[in-house]
Amino acid sequence: MKKIGFVFSSAPHGSASGREGLDAVLATSNYSEDLVLFFVGDGVMQLLAGQKPDEVLSRDYISTFKMLSLCDVEEIYVCADSLAERGLSDHPLVIAVEKVSPTDISASLGQCAKVLQF
Question: Which ranges does the record mark as transmembrane (predicted)?
Fold first, then answer.
């Protein structure tokens, strides 16, 4: 069975895109174990530890990413270049991820039967 890819490319606050993407991942994990998550561009900020969403009048869903391990979502990739461009290479993240190059992300996306972007 081919994998289903989820690409998170938007910042966590200011839109519901990240929360909707996380909801889609959690729902899909009930039906498939072949899920792959990619955090690129501003999407890398979805995983930053220590966020205070209440200060920007946003809902806290960032900590919900910790549920991914309970749903057997194990392939989680973060673009190392995106982290570096934002000065976040050493910033703690809320979950364990594999930092990879854009080339590696492209190769992994090519192995996905479907790709959803949030």
Answer: none
Give the residue extent of every domain in the chain.
3-117
Residue 85 DSSP class:
H
Contact 37, 9 (CB under 8 A): no
pTM of the predicted model as reported, rounded to 2 decimal places: 0.88
CATH of span 3-117: 3.40.1260.10
